[in-house]
Amino acid sequence: MITSVARITSARRFKLWPYLLIAPSLLALGLILGFPIYKLISLSFERYGLAEIIAGKGVFVGLANFTETFTDPEFWKILQRTLIFTLGMVSVSIVIGAWLAHLMVKMHPRIRNILNGVLILVWAMPQLVSISVWRWMFSFDFSIVTALINSMGFEMDNHNYFVNTVSGFLIIGGCVAWGALPFITISIYAALTQVPKDLIEAAEIDGANSRQVFKSIILPMLLPVYIILISLSIIWDFQVFSHIWIFLDSRPSAEYYTMAIYAFQKSFGLSEYGKGAAISLIMIFALIGVTGYYLRQMMRMGDE
């Protein structure tokens, strides 16, 4: 009897131990993020502008900020633009990253190590430096891209690439994809190295071509990794802010507004902090579903 009680007590302690280990981290996160999140939620239900800042107190307006946001045609245009930008960035990043990863598998080890080093350097480069380099490449006065185009016989002196939103978003998207590629490529390459070569060789002996091998063996085994990378890319690209802000000298026109820029401008540009908080909260709820799906896939991979 005493032995069985001791075993039950020991089992309970073992079950509690993981929670005790993560408790300090959860407590720290709660203290750091708890008040900002509380303040964001409370602001979203208030009218809080310059007059309220001077008075030191906001005016409770209930769901008015959300109602005005959802009935604003500009909100839906910006949301659509953000979704298109996110979808484009995720697609380009994943496709190019997967292509590079498959190339790395077939490369000579020395060339692969050089490419690995280049990717790590790109990943380690501070975002501000990376954006500044890209901005210089397409600058109005000293663009190296314009110089190359001029050397081919085309006259493009003092060309502003950001007058047209299509070319502007393509350049910004290129910079975003450039920063995301190292993580995606190295993650897919690491997953590819775990695919059993015996299965691939057996399929090739049975007459399967490279497309059939990829579809029947490689893709199913890498699917959890792809899902995680797509989920993370959606989270990152949906809230892109720094790239647009720096490329456009902190003065983006309305045609370049994404959800993050829109929330910032509402809060700090127009001093409508309540509406800015409401938009930010909408963004958070939009990403909660993606984050939940990502965590679910991570738990599945852990169980496997």
UniProtKB/TrEMBL annotation:
Name by which UniProt lists this protein: Unannotated protein
The answer to whether UniProt assigns keyword Methyltransferase to this entry is: no
Boundaries of every ABC transmembrane type-1 domain copy: 79-294
| Localisation per UniProt entry | Cell membrane
- What GO CC terms are in its UniProt record? plasma membrane
Q: Which CDD domains match?
A: TM_PBP2
What's an example GO BP annotation here? transmembrane transport
TM ranges are: 16-38, 83-105, 117-137, 166-192, 213-236, 276-295
What is this organism's lineage? unclassified sequences, metagenomes, ecological metagenomes
Residues making up the signal peptide according to the UniProt record: none
- Print the keywords alphabetically: Cell membrane, Membrane, Transmembrane, Transmembrane helix, Transport
Alphabetical list of InterPro entries matching this protein:
MetI-like (IPR000515), MetI-like_sf (IPR035906), UgpAE/MalFG_permease (IPR050809)
Q: How does it sit in the membrane?
A: Multi-pass membrane protein
**Organism the protein comes from:** freshwater metagenome
Q: Which PROSITE patterns match?
A: ABC_TM1
Q: Does the record carry Ion transport as a key word?
A: no
